[in-house]
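Q: Please design a sequence for this.
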């Protein structure tokens, strides 16, 4: 992922609503679209909080384009009704969520890891839209690429936190085979469905289930075949990884895990521990 030049990214279309442009970045092309070439991309300094900020024209002007803004510290969701900017979040397994309130013409980009999910960051974003005049039945939602339930092992203490919070049906104990390795997991641990937990929160806030697109590829175990373009795509990934790591002051970047004929589509912390790379999920009002 190239941190400084978001216009150089591979952007892929997300299906949310005809009145918005929604997309996510990836390592290899999937369903390529032009995105953010005419708009400034605003992103926050994410720290796994449940904090939401409304992006005004003033904040947009003062924020950098295509990288986290220092004037948006400890923030994990953005909302705006400005038609000339895009807002986005950075993830590498956590759940990116996009919202569109059709009645007030506002959009939201949310970063929901397990901390944001259990602390209700999606509720906070929906509440802000409602406070601005939106009816939740007019809010549309979609999920970007994130780690799937089958890949997302958690410890028993965290599983109990989600059970106590009313998300017992989002915890499973029978995911035995690792989708990445095709072998049994080393330990029998609980697994967490972050998308289902956030879907339940949306329903509880009044969103219509038909307005929520839960289709989302897994960041950890989604690979593409590169048999013919092997060298080209591997070199592309290497260069993007190097540039991102360089921008973060890391002289020894982690290279995404590859197999002989496949390369990962998304960055994943669980697959490549310590990776500095992130995918971006972003949204803007359709011009």
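A: Design:
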């Amino acid at each position: 992922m190239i941190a400084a030049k978001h216009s150089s990214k591979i952007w892929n279309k997300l299906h949310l609503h005809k009145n918005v442009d929604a997309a996510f970045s990836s390592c290899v092309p999937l369903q390529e679209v032009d995105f953010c070439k005419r708009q400034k991309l605003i992103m926050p300094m994410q720290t796994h909080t449940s904090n939401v900020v409304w992006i005004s024209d003033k904040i947009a002007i003062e924020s950098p384009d295509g990288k986290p803004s220092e004037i948006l510290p400890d923030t994990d969701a953005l909302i705006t009704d400005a038609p000339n900017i895009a807002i986005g979040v950075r993830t590498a397994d956590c759940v990116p969520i996009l919202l569109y309130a059709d009645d007030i013409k506002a959009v939201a980009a949310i970063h929901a890891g397990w901390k944001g999910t259990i602390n209700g960051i999606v509720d906070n974003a929906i509440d802000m839209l409602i406070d601005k005049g939106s009816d939740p039945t007019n809010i549309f939602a979609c999920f970007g690429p994130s780690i799937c339930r089958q890949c997302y092992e958690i410890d028993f203490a965290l599983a109990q936190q989600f059970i106590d919070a009313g998300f017992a049906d989002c915890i499973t104990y029978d995911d035995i085979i690792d989708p990445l390795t095709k072998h049994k997991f080393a330990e029998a641990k609980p697994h967490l469905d972050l998308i289902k937990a956030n879907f339940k929160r949306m329903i509880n806030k009044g969103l219509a289930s038909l307005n929520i697109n839960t289709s989302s590829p897994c960041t950890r175990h989604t690979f593409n075949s590169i048999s013919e373009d092997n060298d080209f795509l591997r070199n592309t990934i290497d260069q993007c990884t190097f540039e991102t790591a360089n921008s973060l002051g890391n002289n020894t970047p982690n290279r995404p895990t590859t197999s002989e004929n496949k390369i990962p589509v998304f960055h994943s912390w669980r697959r490549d521990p310590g990776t500095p790379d992130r995918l971006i999920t972003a949204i803007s009002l359709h011009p």
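Q: Thanks. Anything notable?
A: Helices lie at 57-62, 114-118, 121-131, 156-164, 194-204, 230-247. The CA atoms of residues 3 and 247 lie 7 Å apart.
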